[in-house]
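Suppose you are handed a protein chain with no further information: no name, no annotation, nothing but its sequence. What can you learn? This example shows the usual starting point.
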Amino acid sequence: MPAPAHRSFVAAMGISQMVSWGTLYYSFPLIAEAICNELGWSRADIYGAATLGLLAAALAAYPVGALIDRGHGRPLMVGATVAASLALLGWSSINTMTALYDVVITLGVLQAALSYEPAFAVTIRQLGTQQARSAITTITLWAGFASTVFIPLLQWMLDNLGWRGALLGLAAINMAVAAPLYFWAIRSATVADYTPRHQPATTASPSPPDNPVRAMLYSPRFYLLTASFCFYMALFSGFTYHIYPLLVALSSDIQAVVFAIALIGPAQVGARLLLLLFREISIKHLGLLASVAFPLAILLLKAPPSAFTLAALCVLYGGANGIFTIVRGMAVPELLTRHHYGSINGIMLIPMSLARAAAPWLIAVYWTHSDTPDNALNLMLALAILVPVLFGLALVTKSPTQEHKAGT
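A reasonable first move is to predict its three-dimensional structure. Written in structure tokens, the prediction is:
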């Protein structure tokens, strides 16, 4: 079967990613809250499963990337989508905490094969590096609508079908939409014949005079940026998993809560579209602008709850997150070094993945033991404040390149 045209491939991958994120990631807080209410299980116990699932995803990230490098992107992503549908099907029939942990950890492993990173890797291999940049941007624009589409849809299913019926619906959407699109869009290939289309010939470039990876371990900027990104990942994970129960605890208007959360996706997309109009803005300025917006957004939770404040919170957070995602991706070449991107980014991802995995559980434990959402809110505010503080400190320290020049 011939590979699809560029635009068709990008659209298929974008829709598939929107479904993968909507059914496997953004659905968890709403399902978890419904389980808490019906079965009386502890919020901390349920989010402990989410933490283990995220840890499992981090452990699976490297083998997933290796399989894609060997040309197995299609069977990997299609197989993971089918397996995720079966896991959602199994989740709909659980009655014990052990079964919940088994299902959520399994879904965590499968998320490693269905998140942005494998989708980007497949895109680069299939389209080549020159076309991949614009394609990846478009895919993220599609995926940015995951919360907009799936949170209202899931809330409707919860209201009319219950959480078990809602999980069956999510499984059906995965099988009917994402699986066939991944199968159609991703070209089947082997190591021998998987040559990216439109891939320009490359010439060997000289190695840098010093080892940039080793230089990072002596650079204060590297550690400050890593720390900022760790708190960002903790905030992103904690916000995603807890914003629904937090807003429900603060406001009795469920429809206003669902509407506000649904605005996060368009805000992310709108912010990324704005970046296309202001390409001259540096990563430094973008990072500061977006990171400062995080604590401002969380502070809106302390205002008297209304449809306006809830919507403003989600729009501000969504826009900041949409920009900071790009900042995080460009930080290594723009703020550290243009050499050995994969190795350096991989080192940074280790603590970032741990922070992303631990935050939902820690916030849930803190909320459970304090018995009030205010303390959970204060913890999220502290995380949000540390993001711009550490990012700003990183900018005022010398980059590894400057340190190398100073030492020569």
